[in-house]
Design a protein that fits this description.
With about 350 residues, the chain is an alpha/beta fold. It has seven helices and 29 strands. About 40% of the residues are buried.
């Protein structure tokens, strides 16, 4: 079986962060989001992966490479014709996937545990389509299955009145029949070829469609708050064996719970780090508190600051004598204390779609 990972789009809801970085390269628990998807696919025993990317994309290839890191072979497919929906991504990939079953995985999804069971269920039952489902609080933001006598009779994309409390997650397993479905459906009212319509097409044309509920957590990281929650979920799964401190740590610094710190990092006096926390390499932390569910990229400076439940990208500098929570701080960004410069006041350089709380 092959796999197709969707990693295109422009992630407008994640701006301004995504003005300069592909959403799928945003670090969660100090690993690019796409890496988490590749790990899940590789763990399912799949050795050949295709990644759908935007035309002209180069950073994804630099970050991911040829797949040898995970013991798989990775190739890239440029999305043609612009962003026209998930079904269009599948159709675009048909020449690469051939007439074989394949796993379709949305690269901005993260889930607890292995997805091997979904692949095995699909194979054992000889299905044409297997959908992974999860109960959510807001099903109207997803594709939603409608059930009758325990079977899915149709899937509705973002319904105003959801017929169930389940969302179709970004994990699908298909037989080649899906290619006929994505070729036959028409664009939706928003001009996209909806994967939900392709699923309904399969049902209406007699294909065997199954479903299985994700037993652990699942997260679609479509918004900044979702990214922070996804980061927290991943950090919560940090194993004690992974919580290794390779930093130069002052004897007076206090490190509690599961904390992973990379080489070359200096943890100075007056610091309290309370995990789960991941700190990258070559960072400097002085007289600061880093609280639970915070990921700190490599090359970051945190001085005279409290920060918690946040994601700090590489080479950022934070020295503000304040407490920061629920923050996304981009690469090379600076958060400094206003009291140290004259005239007094809050100096802001705020781009489009930013959020600042003062």
């Amino acid at each position: 079986m092959k796999a197709l990972i969707a990693a295109g789009g422009h992630a407008t809801r994640m701006r301004p962060i995504t003005y300069t970085i592909n959403k799928h390269l945003i670090p969660l628990a100090n690993k690019p989001l796409i890496w988490h998807a590749i790990e899940k696919v590789a763990d399912a025993g799949i050795k050949e992966i295709f990644i759908n990317v935007n035309p002209g994309e180069t950073e994804m290839q630099k970050c991911v490479g040829d797949g040898s890191r995970w013991g798989v072979a990775i190739r890239y497919i440029e999305q043609t014709g612009g962003p026209k929906g998930l079904a269009h991504i599948v159709k675009n990939a048909q020449p690469y996937l051939g007439e074989e079953p394949f796993l379709f995985y949305l690269g901005d999804n993260i889930a607890l545990g292995s997805i091997r069971e979904f692949v095995n269920e699909f194979t054992t039952r000889n299905l044409d389509c297997l959908l992974a489902l999860s109960k959510v609080k807001n099903p109207n933001q997803f594709g939603v299955p409608e059930f009758r006598a325990g079977k899915i009779i149709r899937v509705i994309e973002k319904p105003a009145s959801p017929p169930s409390e389940f969302a179709v997650t970004g994990i699908y397993v298909y037989s080649p029949k899906i290619f006929q479905a994505v070729s036959d459906i028409a664009p939706s009212a928003r001009g996209e070829y909806e994967i939900s319509d392709a699923h309904t097409w399969l049902i209406e044309h007699g294909a065997s469609l199954g479903h299985q509920e994700i037993t652990g957590w699942w997260k679609d990281t479509g918004r900044p708050d979702d990214l922070l929650e996804g980061n927290a979920l991943l950090l919560n799964e940090l194993k004690l064996s992974e919580a290794v401190n390779e930093a130069q740590t002052d004897p007076t610094a206090v490190i509690q719970n599961k904390v992973k710190i990379g080489r070359g990092t200096i943890i100075g006096p007056g610091c309290l780090i309370r995990g789960p926390v991941v700190i990258g390499e070559n960072c400097r932390v002085e007289n600061s508190y880093i609280g639970p569910y915070t990921s700190v990229g490599s090359g970051v400076e945190i001085i005279n600051t409290e920060i918690e439940h946040s994601i700090v990208f590489e080479n950022a500098k934070i020295s503000c004598d304040q407490r920061i929570v629920d923050a996304l701080i981009g690469k090379n960004a600076q958060v400094l204390a206003a009291e140290r410069t004259l005239p007094r006041g809050h100096k802001l350089i705020v781009g489009d779609n930013s959020l600042v709380e003062i």
